[in-house]
Amino acid sequence: LLVMQGIKSADTLPPELIEEYYICNRTGEEILKKAIVEGSASSANPRLDIGLLVSGLWGCIEAVILKKCDVEYWDKGKKFTDAFVKLWIKSVFGDEK
After folding, report:
1. Spatial separation of the C-alpha atoms in residues 12 and 52, rounded to whole Å
2. What tens digit of pLDDT does each residue of 4-60 get?
3. Are 73 and 56 in contact (CB under 8 A)?
4. How far is CA 74 from CA 5, 60, 62, 70, in A?
5. In 1-97, which ranges are E strands?
6. In this structure, how many other beta carbons lie within 10 angstroms of the beta carbon of residue 29?
7. Distance between CA atoms of residues 28 and 73, nearest Å
8. Can you give the pLDDT at residue 70?
9. Fewer CB within 10 Å, N- or C-terminus of the chain?
10. pLDDT category, 2, cuts 50, 70, 90?
C-alpha cells in the first residue's frame, strides 16, 4: 500500500512509459496465459483478471490499514486478504484444492 500510494499516476506519460508501470500485471498475465494453455486455468480475459487481482488485493490491504473494512477484520488483515485471493483463485482455477 505504501508503495502504491507513492507511485504517481502515469496518465500523462507516453504509452511506452505507462507500460513500465504494469510490469507485475504483465508478468501475471503471461503466467495466467500459460496456465490456460496447460488447462489448469480458465479466463476469457487474462489481462482483466490479473488487473482485478492486483487492484482488488491493493483495495483489501488499504481497507484493513485504513480501517475501512468491517471492524471484525481490523486486526485480521491476513484473513481478510486471504479470503479475497481465494475468491479470485476459485474464479480462475475452479474449486480444486
Report:
1. 23
2. 666 677 778 888 888 888 889 999 999 999 999 999 999 999 999 999 999 999 999
3. no
4. 20, 11, 11, 7
5. none
6. 19
7. 28
8. 97
9. C
10. low
For 66-77, the pLDDT digits (tens) are 999 999 999 999
- In total, the chain counts a number of residues equal to 97
> Which residue shows C-alpha cell 492486483?
54
User: Do residues 94 and 42 touch, judged by C-beta distance below 8 A?
Assistant: yes
Q: Which of 2, 5, 91 is nearest to 52 (CA)?
A: 91
φ/ψ of residue 65, rounded to 5: -60, -40
**CB-based burial of residue 37 (10 Å sphere; 0-12 exposed, 13-18 middle, 19+ buried)?**
exposed
Cα–Cα dist 14/20, whole Å = 10
Domain boundaries, the chain: 13-93
Q: Is the pLDDT of residue 97 over 60?
A: no
